Amino acid sequence: MFAPHASYLSGNLFDLGPQMLFDDAEGEVVYRPGVVDPDTSQRWFEALRDGIAWQAYQRPMYDRIVDVPRRVASYWLGAQHVPAALVEAATLIRRELGVPFNAVGTNLYRDGADSVAPHNDKLKMLVPGHPIALLSLGATRRMTIRAKLPPRHVRHVRHVDLERGSLLLMSHASQHHYDHGIPKTREPVGPRISLAFRVRPAPDSAG
Predict the structure, then answer these.
(1) What dihedral do alpha carbons 84, 36, 73, 183 form, nearest 10°?
(2) Contact between 32 and 7 (Cβ < 8 Å)
(3) How many Å apart are CA 149 and CA 86, to the nearest integer?
(4) What is the pLDDT of residues 94-109, one digit of tens each?
(5) Which of 79, 83, 140, 194 has the most CB atoms within 10 Å of its CB?
(6) What is the pTM of this model?
(7) How far apart are CA 30 and CA 35, in angstroms?
(8) How does DSSP assign 22-57, residue by residue?
(9) Which helix (H) or strand (E) holds 147?
(10) With 0-12 CB in 10 A as exposed, 13-18 as middle and 19+ as buried, what is 59?
């Protein structure tokens, strides 16, 4: 369960009810559509799309180096020069969830060719007991969440369309047992920005 607070289950902002994707001994994953209203979502999307210095990078794959199929940027929320839209979003999410998020990773999916492979968050870079909160802006993209180990039947796979203004909450424990990813799609789709809020160890205590 998400700890130490459970305020995400109530409040004016969360009036559509949760969609519990996983709730078992291996962790909890909850989807909330309509967390942020359309006008605010669009304003944040445009500000971040045009205001962030998006970075391209590469990574090794087998015997070659490949481009990562999306653009990224990361911020400590207490640092200077954090975009105003990120500060607004962080303030809202912190207040509603009661979680002291101190970092955010942003991803820009420019079209259906951009994606992220199935993965879990690196646990050594997370403070135990706190969830990951994924806020979606822009076009809808489908996420697949899958159990890492057998039995990998349909009950252990979920496909969820991450709509504009929605929030996906993943418990810390879920990262041990489930992978999540955004696959490529051939369907026409506009750009999407994801904001992944996390509680990370303070920089001076990471070493």
Answers:
(1) -170
(2) no
(3) 35
(4) 998 999 999 999 999 9
(5) 194
(6) 0.84
(7) 12
(8) EEETTEEEEEETTSS-HHHHHHHHHHHHHHS--B--
(9) strand 141-147
(10) exposed
